[in-house]
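Hey, can you fold this one?
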Amino acid sequence: MTSDPQHGVSPERPAAGRSRWRFWAWPGELHRRGILGINRRNADCVMPCNPRKFYPRVDDKVITKGICQQRGIPVPKTFAVIERNGDIRKLSSVIEGRQEFVIKPACGSGGRGIVVVARHDGETFHTSSGEEIHISALRYHLSTMLSGLYSLGGQVDRAIVEERIVRHKVFENVAVNGTPDIRIILYRYVPVMAMIRLPTVASRGRANLHQGAVAAAINLHTGRTFGGVCKSRAISAHPDTGASIEGLAVPAWEELLSAAMNLAEGLELGYVGVDFVLGISSNPVVLEANARPGLAIQVAHRRGLVPRLNMVDAHNPESMTPDYRRELIAKLAAVE
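Sure. Predicted structure:
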């Protein structure tokens, strides 16, 4: 298997006389590289490790916040939870005296429907990406949110108005118009892989890979970034600023790992992705959790999840103590 700087995981180069170079890989080649596919993720990780009755704990951000607060894990301060259309007219009083805030669907996914307001005069709202939204348009957006436009399965939803976390200064040159977030994937309560998602112009300030954000892999043991991917292509520099996305030391890394393990236990989900943001104060704050985390993190790492999952299984995870899980992290970081 060779390394293709444009595509990360790449197929073997053909011998002389065989077919020309391919820009894709056969399933067998991905299997040999330990790449976890969506079918195997669902069959071997999600279904056996995540009891369906616990899904609301991560699918509803209001519930997730409550669990975090019960376990002493910081979350963005909630200003209001809007449940009915009649409550929308109270928005002005909710945000009075607050220049910055975030509006998000409680049961949304993929970053859809989120509005990050950086400043306003009560009538015109300026988002972190530089867009202007009139108060009437913002109220209409809230009504579509409540109707379920952005929720999982199109179900009637709630809207959360919460504190905006301004990014830590260490990310100034590698994030555009928004705040990066850090995802840690845990298997049987053990962190197995992590990445940081960096907003771009294309993602309109959102840390969402499907919308054009950049992902940089994080070494579990050191908390430093390496590798990177944007729009399914391997990169090493931010596409807008040109700054290197490799070698960044994530602040409060040990606290992030501890909070992720703490929350995974509270959720009682054996395969989960936990998303954090780091503000100016460096304190990790949980944004949300996901019982079906995406698999693009493997492209950022240039390696698959399967060998790490197998290592966790080999260490009798049911009897692991929190201290033993931390000792295992360094070994996982070295798994190819």
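The mean pLDDT is 89. Let me know if you want another pass with a different chain boundary.
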